[in-house]
Amino acid sequence: MNIRRGAKIAGLSVIALLLLVIVSVGVLIGTQAGSRWALARVPGVQLENFQGRLGGQWSAERLVWQQGADRVEVHSVDFAWTPACLLKMTLCINRLHAGQVLLRFPPSSAPSDEDPMNLPAVKLPLALQLGDIQLGSMQLDGVEQLRDLKL
């Protein structure tokens, strides 16, 4: 009888813990306050004028990611996706607009090979569904690579 009661308590504890995790994730990505809190804890990420929620639609005047000398800066970001698509193993990006993307990646100090680089075959764990994609311009180390991309 005690074993049954212990198993029941353990089962209910696991269910309660799972519900707590689900609610916590929902609050983090489903609310603007939770999204701001989560983003403030990502190393190297800075956002200016973040509006919205990570679990749906958001925008920012400026997003910066920096790690060492590598830096990615995106201006006028507007992003919308459908998290429910993940249940179908699909990443559904409904809208991704960016005014300007600045990429800075200093040259590596490692010696370069003379052989051409061979990329491995990559199988993504999720299908990708893209909606409205617009990019004003993209610069790599100060040199414009792309302008007025629309997909």
TrEMBL record:
Keyword Transmembrane helix annotated: yes
Note whether Transmembrane occurs among the keywords: yes
Which GO annotations describe the biological process of this protein? protein secretion
Chief location category? membrane
Q: Where in the cell is it found?
A: Membrane
Q: How does it sit in the membrane?
A: Single-pass membrane protein
List UniProt keywords, sorted A-Z.
Membrane, Transmembrane, Transmembrane helix
Q: Name one GO cellular component term.
A: TAM protein secretion complex
User: Where along the sequence do coiled-coil regions lie?
Assistant: none
Cited PANTHER family: TRANSLOCATION AND ASSEMBLY MODULE SUBUNIT TAMB
Protein name per UniProt: Uncharacterized protein
